[in-house]
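Bumping with the actual sequence this time:
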Amino acid sequence: TTARTPATLAAAAAAAPPALGLPGHPLGVPCHNMRLRLRQHKRLAMGLSRVAGWGAFLLEPARRGELIGEYTGELVSHAEADRRGKAYDRDDNSYLFNLNAASVIDARAAGNKLRFANHAPAGDGANCKAAILLVDGDHRVGVYAARDLPAGAELFYDYMYEPEKAPRWAK
């Protein structure tokens, strides 16, 4: 058998046809768990958003279903996220992403450029979808293109706020 090294895994992921996927994938698109695992993401930049503050922008095109990148940050408990969230709400921004029953990702200080992707309700301007995937036993958040996107596109996804808990800027 072939050894499972980063190089062989990367070669296998690169050689996989784009239509190869798993039935029932949460986004209804080919499975890109391996690309998330190997951090094969799109190049991004941050810049002034056309809707609010800063935004995240693609530096290269992305096809529907392609991994744009991973939402990263500090893993904190829900209790700590609630404490931090109150302070973030006063500033009218938040970088918290509920990961699972035990953890929340706080990207405010330790996140990457995807923390600047702004909110848009699904079907109302969202051009990306976030999906929580189990990768090597860990929950991780992949952000995928919801449709074909050109280089320079500003990224938006639905933050999935519960209506009664959504901050005023997300309504």
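The tokens above came from a reply further down the thread. Helices lie at 6-15, 33-37, 78-90, 107-110.
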